[in-house]
Amino acid sequence: MAFSADELRVLRRALANALHPTPLPEEDVQDCLRLAGAVDEVVSEAGRLRAFLLADLARYRDALPGSLSGYLELLQDALAAGYDPRPDDLAALRALRAGPVAAALLERCQVLAERSVRARLAGRAVPVTTPAPRGRLLALRGGLSAAKEPERPRTPSRPAEPARPPAPGERPMPKPSEVFPPRRRPAPAPPAEERAVS
Question: Residue 192 region, left (φ>0) first, then alpha (ψ -120 to 50), else beta?
Fold first, then answer.
């Protein structure tokens, strides 16, 4: 989820008010309510998108083997987003395991399905696997100049080796423009002169 600069200002003011409660002006309250509404809309849109993607995955699975590449791609995306493979997915992948991508996906799905079944039998919630978190973002005073990365020792650059001259009996490699000269455009015909008939 990404916030615009205005939304970040509203969020910052709301967090500052949460830490140090003070009465807010009416404009700030309205900004906070608009931001909360926008976040709710994004969350519901993400739910609709997830439902659409799962329905799309089911359509591709039903159209196998003709939709093989699309199905494998959608399944990989769904697994990366935390999708728990269903028995239909495992059956489809078993039928397609002759391909290397399908075989690798089958192994991955079997591990995830086994983990899911064990978690359900143990009576606990299935952990959702998500993509690896991104690195931490740091804000530094003074921008990049304040970061002062350690200088790397510079390696002296080698002088460029001169191209070896062609052997006496060997012809040099022709340039593409020599082999395929550019096409000459025909010169435009001179405008026809109108002669006055007297």
Answer: beta
Among 41, 42, 45, 64, which residue's Cα sits nearest to residue 53? 45
- Whether 119 and 127 have beta carbons less than 8 Å apart is answered as yes
pLDDT digits (tens, 9 = 90+) for 116-143: 888 888 886 655 443 333 344 344 344 4
pTM of the model: 0.46
Quick one: residue 143, left, alpha or beta (phi over 0 = left, psi -120 to 50 = alpha)? left
Token pair in block for residue 11: 């969020």
Q: Decide: 103 and 80 in contact? Cβ < 8 Å.
A: no
Contacts 24+ apart (CB under 8 A), 90-99: 92/61, 92/64, 95/64, 95/65, 96/64, 96/65, 96/68, 96/72, 99/68
Sole residue written with tokens 């799962």 = 54
- Residue 43: the pLDDT is 85
Alpha carbon 18 to chain centroid, angstroms = 35
